[in-house]
Amino acid sequence: MTEAITLSGAAASRGGAPVWSGVDLSIARGEFVAVLGPNGAGKSTFLDVVLGLLPLSTGGVSVLGEAPRAARVRIGYLPQRRSFDASTRVRGIDVVRLGLDGARWGLPLPTALSPTARAANAKVDEVVELVGAGGYAERPIGTLSGGEQQRLLIPQALVRDPQMLLLDEPLDSLDLPNQSAVAALVQRICRTQGVTVVLVAHDVNPILGYLDRVVYFAGGRGVEGPPRDVIQADVLSELYGSPIEVVETQSGRLIVVGTPDAHGHDGGCGGHDHASDAEPVHADPAVAERGPAG
Amino acid sequence: MSLSGPHLSWDLVADWEQLTAYPFMVQALEAGAIVAVMAGAIGWFMVLRRQTFAGHTLAVISFPGAAAATLAAIPIAFGYFGACALGALALAAVGREGRGGRSGESAAIGTVQAFALGLGFLFVGLYGGQLAGLESLLFGTFLGITQGQVVTLLCIAVAVLSVLAVIGRPLFFTSVDGSVARAGGVPTRALAVAFLLLLGMAVAATAEITGALLVFALLVTPAATAQLITARPALGLALSVVLAFLVTWIGLGIAYFSPYPVGFWVTSLSFGLYVLVRLAAAPPRLRAAI
Question: Total domain count for chain B?
Answer without folding.
Answer: 1
